[in-house]
Amino acid sequence: MKRLNVKKLVAIGAGAALVGAALAPIVSAQSGVVKGDLISDTGSPLVDVVVGASAANSDVVWASNIASRIAQLATVSTTTDVDGDGSIDITVGGTTTYGGSAKTYDSSTYTLKTDTGEANEFADLKLGASQLDFLSNGTESYTFDGTSYEQTVKERIWINADARFLHSSTKVQDLVVQMKNTGDFNYEVTFSKGLPVSDGLNKPKTNKFKDDGNDSITFPFLGVDYSLFRAQDTGGVKEIRLLKSTDAKKRYFSGDSLTGLKGTGAHEGENLSLTIDNIVQSTSQSSFEVEISLWDEEGNLLDSETAGEGQFLETILEGSDGKTALDTSLFTEKIRQDIETSQGYVTMTRGDDLIILRDGQEFPYDSTSTGTSNHNWVVNLTSGTSSTPDVNAFTKITIKNQNTKWNVNNPLWAGNDALTESGMEGSNEAVLLQDYSEDTIGYGYASVVFDGFKNDQDLTKFQLGNGNMVYFDSTDEVERTVPFVIALDHSGDPNDESSFTLLNQTFYYRTNSTDVNVLLTQNAKLNGFAIDLNAGAVSCGIGFHDQSTSSATDLNAGTARPVAIDINQVQYRLPHCTSTGAVGGTTVQMVADGNFQIAKVAFDTVADADYIGTDNNFNTWYYEDKNGVNSTYNGALLALSGTGMDSESYKYAYYSNESESVLWLLLDKATTWTGQYTYTPTFIGTDTVEDGTIDLNWFHPDDLRLGGDEADNTKFVAKFQLDDNGGGTAGTEIYLHALLEDDADIISLPDNELSRYTVDANYDGGTKAAIWSMSYRTDSDSFFDQAWTDFGTKYSVADGETFQAWIPDNRLNLSLTVRGTDSTETTTGGQDFTGVTSGSTVTTDTGTTVTVGTVGGTSSGQTVVPAGDLVVLDSGVSAGGNHVIVGGYIVNSLAQGLVLGDGTTLEESLTSSSSDYVLEKLSNGDFVVAGYTAAQTGLAAQEFIDELEALLA
User: 400 - beta bridge partners?
Assistant: First the structure.
């Protein structure tokens, strides 16, 4: 059951909701039925559905189901002009809550855990009446051996569920709950005194429990009151038999018949009958016995037997195949002679509503099923004793899942929080006695619903790619888009100004690509660092160093000029120096390759405080152009800030290439981010040789103009980290191909030239070892591109360009609900979109994509035509018209003598239970839906219904 709530939307497919999408017609394959065979041009039915007056109840049900589909086809096409502006308002998502008989578990205990250990369960629940009001917990009175007793009877539901982002399986790769072990989903009923054992050793009483006036026990079982009929614990067999009917016990005389008995095995779906042939006594001293005969619904004798008292006749009567034939239980209570009439009689309990519970065997019990390995649900009976009364007893009945498991092949998907198409289409509900027919006793008495996360927290979006980092600044409450690279034109006149904008701040700049004199005096700042001139001899044999280092650079006056000087990785030339003999009076004149200035206002109104690097020497940044050799400078960082950026400041290294006339600003790892809530993003730096080690502390594009080469076999990879839960550990490492501008995206895979990087993101959950990895790849199903973290953050690289994360304010708890059949559900909230136009796509804050079809214009629809009563008995068929004939020739008179398309009659085609069923359109326009047995008729009917539903589509 999928609970993606799309209000005003009706169809969901392949990860997106589609509104107004047309469906292609489907052609039926078996009978060749078309709508014109069943419905006229005016929408009126052309057929009735005929069922035999003596047919099995199942035939009537199938006929009714067929008629309901035909009635749905009773429509005519209409065309309506839709007024409007060509747009629609929609709501996507929401929170599902449950009322009535339901209990939801979503407290702080129920969180997603990466640890895959079996002991680390999501929910281990033992639920009784205080949690689920449809379960019983009370005192029940009963009678045994003529004495009244009371005992406490309790029903419980046990759930052992494990929640995982199951990334290791290519079948799943989604958020799921698993109940993958036997006994992970149990129903049990316990008895404080127990159910007395009737067949077997009693403790120490010799009286055995009998369902009569002296012995009577009634108790709730799967929500229905049943009476204990027998309890056996002997010969290695533990078994309980329960009866629902209160008038199941009757007296039968010779010549009486029991009809409507349910067949099984070879007679599945048939109505059998039993005749009481005679009551016999071999000698005056011997016990009476009853002679019986079993007949099929065609009147054929199947078996005759002689039985004594205390026997279950279904265990001795056989069908045409020599195996058990009766599904209805018949128990011989007494075989006696009536004193007044001298007639013999047998008192039998008929178990049409009988439930057999056999320890270690399937529920519902199937006597033809051997072994235990093929059972979906099994029964466990717990033996015990009682002192009042003093008997052996069964103290607990358990029904638990065995082969029915919610494992990797059949998990509970996450409802609204499913990531994959399989998850969106799959069920998020586990049902008690799942994999059986819905009319099975107890089916759906309890169910488990997994809706994914309790989405009660605000979210913030974080994104890397398309050349930017996008995050929400919680201090200033605004979304920020910060580029990795800012390219500045470096070709104009040094006095000309240009500008660029970062966030809402405009910056003005001018560049000079010709050599420029640099005059240094004591404590002047060069590219952000103060220079300490340490005066030596008057000959200018002085030393100096910047205040971030302790080592001095000597200026040797005896060296031929010009002298090359490296200060913070920038090479300057020293033509000469002068000295007055005092440190404060020393001036050093150097030459740099060029310089640039950046200010927050236009240069015609600029003041010192308006410059970026306000205390730099002459408010200027100096550079060395190495003509293609990597020359960004560690430590020479511009801190871009301004009123248009509120409280934020972003640090950039810089790189100049005069031959390309471009000055690049490159995002540096020294930048700190004030993200919303508690998450922490970090830029680590750039790996330029693919060895996993950061070589440069800034975002350095793999481009010829910056010393790289996108065409060679070595990629520059920029690394980022994201701690989504604010725990101070780098929970996720993300890898981008370091390129210029919009091309700076997650690394494109597969790439045989990448020697080390094979994924787009690694999640380590704070353990510093990758737990799972995400990749956007279309060449294999082994990789996944969406994920959930333990914190409840959703990750996605599904667009192939960006890494996206939707991070909650606080850790999200998972939501699991155990519910009964009368519980209710309500979906509220969701994200609203207004004015959505035809063909447009909207994406929620959590990445759910919805595509809208045609809105407005002309709308085609259907008008329903009243169909009337379509199901009729074969004895009341009116003349004229065509028929859908349900059931074989034995139970439906219209099926007798029908000639099929191959020239054979129906009688010739249906000769035994091993015959194929018949689903065919006859030459006269009738349809025949029939099998030799009622079960085979059901198979034919289901296939016909499938064809009708295809026409409905």
Answer: 186, 378
Q: Does the CA dihedral 469-471-474-476 come out positive or negative? A: positive
Buried b (16+ CB within 10 A) or exposed e, 27-64: ebeebebebebbbeeebebebbbbbbebbbebbbbbbe
> What is d(CA 663, CA 668) in angstroms, rounded to the nearest whole number?
15
- Asked if residue 625 has pLDDT above 70, the reply is yes
Amino acid (one-letter) located at 186: N
Say which amino acid occupies 282.
Answer: S
pLDDT score for 433: 97
Terminal alpha carbon distance of the chain: 20
The radius of gyration of the chain's CA atoms, rounded to the nearest angstrom, is 42
Structural tokens at position 682:
């970090």
Q: What pLDDT, on a 0 to 100 scale, did the predictor assign at position 581?
A: 45
User: What value does the mean pLDDT take over residues 774-779?
Assistant: 92
pTM: 0.71
How far, in whole angstroms, is CA 132 from its chain's centroid? 25
pLDDT band at residue 199 under the 50/70/90 scheme: low
pLDDT interval class at 219 (50, 70, 90): very high
pLDDT, tens only, 318-332:
999 999 899 888 988
* Identity at 399, one-letter amino acid code: I
Q: Which residue has the tokens 């600003």?
A: 665
How many CB atoms lie under 10 A from the CB of residue 644?
Answer: 14
Handedness of CA 286, 288, 289, 291 (dihedral sign): positive
DSSP secondary structure of 587-653: EEEEEESEEEEEESS-GGG--GGGBTTTTBGGG-EEE---TTS----TT--EEEE-GGGTT-EEEEE
Structure tokens at 303: 């078996």
Please compute the mean of the pLDDT values over residues 752-760 and round it to a whole number. Answer: 89
If residue 720 lies in a helix (H) or strand (E), which one and from where to where? strand 717-723
Q: How many CB atoms lie within 10 A of CB 73?
A: 19
Q: Is the dihedral of CA 754, 758, 759, 763 positive or negative?
A: negative
DSSP string computed for 825-872: EEEE--EEEEEEETT-EEE-TT--EEEE---SEEEEEEEE------EE
Peptide bond into 562 cis (omega under 30): yes
What is the token pair recorded at 360?
């270690």
**pLDDT tens track for 347-375:** 888 887 788 999 999 998 887 776 677 89
